[in-house]
């Protein structure tokens, strides 16, 4: 991993990772996406493994199949709003649970998290000045890939209480910035359909063949 920006242990200890696995997965027939098999493991296990080396501790946001998610080796938290209220509800559940001052998020259906994902977001923080850092793929914002200050929880809960659910609108209430990940397009490959799952598995197989 030569050339990668790496967090030191002191900084890593300030960050908890949150895997977002609380969606309804309508386009997958309502199946729990994070538990779909991908190259011999549950889909969620891939992102969780890639994130685990970059943070101090891990949480999984899930609204069903809690025992199966716990088998992946992380504490499970659930939305307090119910009815599969979207990523912001998962953010709130994670922020309410963490002991660290920062939370970094990844979706369970994007398995190819790059090894310097967290360190690149962390490098954009200005002490006392930034509430959130969000990944950008070069074409559009990817707000489920975010680093959030724990102190934003109160504002997020107030936003959700208004019935709002859009991440972009919530970010407008914060001091935030973006980090360009256009050099890491594979990180944003996600699984919404069975065809997507097959494509991502083919990509993982190709990467494994290159590394072998």
Structural descriptors:
alpha/beta; Spore Coat Polysaccharide Biosynthesis Protein SpsA, Chain A; 7-stranded mixed sheet; two-stranded antiparallel ribbon
Q: Could you give the distance between the termini?
A: 15 Å
Helix content: 25-40%
Main sheet, how many strands, which sense, barrel? 7 strands, mixed
Structural class label: alpha/beta
Report the order of strands and helices: HEEEHEHEHEHEEHHEH
CATH architecture classification: Alpha-Beta Complex
Could you tell me the CATH topology label. Spore Coat Polysaccharide Biosynthesis Protein SpsA, Chain A
The CATH class, by name, is Alpha Beta
Q: Tell the overall outline.
A: globular
Number of helices: 8
Strand order of the largest sheet: 5-4-1-6-8-7-9
In total, the number of domains comes to 1
Unreliable spans are none
Mean pLDDT score: 90
CATH superfamily: Spore Coat Polysaccharide Biosynthesis Protein SpsA, Chain A
Strand count: 9
Summarize it:
The chain has about 210 residues and is α/β, with parallel strands linked by helices.
